[in-house]
Sequence to fold (126 residues):
Amino acid sequence: MTMTRDSVSNIILRVGVAFAFLYPPIDALANPYSWIGYFPPFMHGYISDTVLLHSFGALEVVIALWILSGWRIFWPSLLATLMLLSIVIFDFNDFEVLFRDLSIAAAAAALAVTHYKDSVAGKSVL
Fold:
């Protein structure tokens, strides 16, 4: 099987975005207080911070694995883009750290744009 430049680029984008979504929930298991501060104040107080953090982490893992799977990745890529933009918007005071999320959001958006037609048609990119 010969891989084209486009397919190699696609794999690199998918792995990069997936890594950005897998690292936080894994690290949050050992260092939850390093991550809970990134949630905006309006999200605190409804459920415990630990449940909030790990529930969000579970969503991040699902998105990452879905993107890695190559199956209809328009949807998780679009969701990843929106989540990353929301993180930056709702925690703009930490922009000096979160500015990197904009680059990851751009990569996720590129995946979404690239695979829009594939997802609608039900094709896999594998």
